[in-house]
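Pilot study result, target chain (181 residues):
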Amino acid sequence: MKKRRVVILGGLYVFCSLCTISMGQNLKIGFVSTLDVLYGTDEGKVELEELNRFGTAKQNELATEGAALQQLQERYTTQQASLSVLTRAEMEREMQDRDIQLKRLQEDIQLEFNERQNQLLERMSGKIQEIINEYAPQNNFSVIFLRNEGQAFVDGALDITGAIVEIYNERNPIAGQGSSQ
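Predicted structure:
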């Protein structure tokens, strides 16, 4: 809550400062939702679909390994009373090993998914920022803010996300699709 208040107050301070500085000047402000750009561009859609396919495949792999561990646990539970001490100890050790392997697999998958997601965001963020940097002076914007949950309300007329998505798609066509127009 305190962080949100600081973000809101900081944004309000910047806004008021810009308004004060530009009294008598035409101040043009815009907002861009980078997540909406990511989800709205052709490249973003393709890359996110690929990331989702990766995630689904890895979830299936986890489910398979989890089911194998569960079968081993069920077999141990049903046979526990009739197993020798040595066999019981071996099965317990195997269950522990598989449980550790399953947890490591889950951690490895999460790390790889996060790495792929971060690479996508980094790759696209650079292109998005370049477009914004060119778009702002060409369209006489004094400032363009990134839209986030810190803004309680932003007039839709100030949102330039659609224009940024359109330019992004024109500059970065998906192979085989050509321009998105």
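One observation from the pilot: Helices lie at 2-21, 34-40, 42-79, 85-138, 161-171. A full batch analysis is planned for the follow-on phase.
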